Amino acid sequence: MPDLLIEQLYKSYEIRDESLSILRDISFELSVGENLGIVGPSGSGKSTLLYIIGTLEKPTSGQIQMNGQNPFNLPETSLAAFRNEQIGFIFQDHHLLPQLSAIENILIPTLAHGRPSTEQTTRAHQLLDRVGLADRRHHLPSELSGGERQRVAIARALIHEPKLLLADEPTGNLDRSTAESVTDLLLDIQQDSQPQTMMIVVTHSSALANRLQQRYELDLGQLK
Q1: What is the pTM of this model?
Q2: Is residue 137 in some structural domain?
Q3: Domain CATH number, residue 199
Q4: Domain limits at 121?
Q5: pLDDT tens digits for the chain (224 residues)?
Q6: 163 in Cβ contact with 198 (< 8 Å)
Q7: Number of domains the chain contains
Q8: Does residue 53 form part of some domain?
């Protein structure tokens, strides 16, 4: 059985007594260490699909299974813990807290259970080293470049050693050279992680999507 199974996902919204279909019959699977890219125009539903896989939104129908478990069957508090510990998110707008340093931003996901442990703090420093920002650990986001802020966001997504890494336009706000550097980093970290994580990237960038193991296009709510 695949480690991640997406089966017949549908998503629609009721607007003024009419049903607006966003996703239709989305199915694919992914195993440990694998990655895939999803491309498509703005408004095609890429982010919606990613939010459903990340358990931030519920599908209208269909199911998600990670390691044989459907997270939407969990109670809300258990679902929140599942999302925090099993899934890492990287967004186009890095969403770093401006008043916190790089190292403090990386540790944010650990605060759900109180103060970060010594092991978690050590891992945060190791991740900063891994993304090449050892000398920026105490800098605020305003003191970092766009590429550096995105590297901090990548490190934050990895703090819990997630089984699944979800990236929503991770290079969308970066210039070409910086985007290539961030892409290199994402792929290197994903493949070097132990245990290996799975990764799904939604992007407008064909250059990024073409470097992933699998590529799908989302058009009119369906994967092709």
Answers
A1: 0.93
A2: yes
A3: 3.40.50.300
A4: 36-44+74-219
A5: 789 999 999 999 888 778 889 999 999 999 999 999 999 888 888 999 999 999 999 999 999 999 999 999 999 999 999 999 999 999 878 889 999 999 999 999 999 878 899 999 999 999 999 999 999 999 999 999 999 999 999 999 999 999 999 999 998 888 888 989 989 999 998 888 877 899 999 998 888 999 999 999 998 889 98
A6: yes
A7: 1
A8: no
